[in-house]
Task: inverse folding
């Protein structure tokens, strides 16, 4: 396994899906290469969390950052009544250890005829690895948002912005629009990229964040 950090001053030159975005968007990537076995990927998720945390710590005290995870889930039950019972966070608690994820909000959303729930929760630096595991397992359905020391906690405002953009036609989070909209406001947005033997944590931001 080979791991390293890459920093790009203009993310639009690296990521084709950001080609129409502002050239002020930067990207920090924690990259893992030659991940040949499942245990390599598991180990890299922990390593990428530590690399990102260490990078943040060089700019500000870690306690001054706020972290949020935005989540979207679709109905995998035969009954919508069961889906509406579990909603989002109760459903995730069946699979994830969510201790430390606070200020949870969940809202029903319809895409065509399909029901979804979209939600947000705030978490601390101690839960960063768990959040990274979540976004790496399903990048279209999970995204991390980071705020620097100048911003108070406001889960509802962030969720409202995501809902105003709307889910994609396939029911995923609008990651491209979230990156362009939220980085312009000084937030960082973290996603996950992967190929056959490479994985990377991708953090998009502008100079206002770091």
Result:
């Amino acid at each position: 396994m080979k791991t390293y950090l890459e920093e790009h001053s203009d993310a639009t030159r690296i990521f084709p899906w950001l080609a129409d975005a502002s050239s002020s968007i930067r990207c920090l990537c924690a990259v893992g290469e030659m991940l040949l076995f499942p245990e390599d990927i598991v180990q890299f998720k922990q390593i990428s969390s530590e690399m990102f945390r260490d990078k943040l710590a060089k700019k500000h005290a870690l306690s001054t950052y706020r972290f949020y995870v935005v989540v979207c889930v679709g109905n995998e039950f035969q009954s919508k009544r069961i889906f509406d019972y579990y909603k989002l966070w109760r459903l995730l608690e069946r699979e994830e250890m969510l201790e430390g994820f606070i200020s949870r909000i969940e809202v029903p959303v319809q895409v065509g005829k399909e029901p979804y729930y979209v939600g947000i929760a705030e978490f601390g630096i101690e839960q960063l690895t768990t959040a990274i595991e979540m976004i790496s397992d399903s990048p279209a359905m999970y995204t991390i948002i980071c705020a620097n020391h100048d911003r108070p906690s406001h889960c509802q405002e962030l969720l409202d912005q995501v809902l105003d953009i709307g889910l994609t036609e396939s029911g995923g989070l609008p990651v491209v629009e979230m990156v362009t909209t939220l980085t312009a406001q000084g937030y960082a947005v973290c996603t996950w990229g992967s190929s056959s033997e490479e994985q990377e944590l991708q953090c998009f931001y502008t100079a206002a964040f770091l």
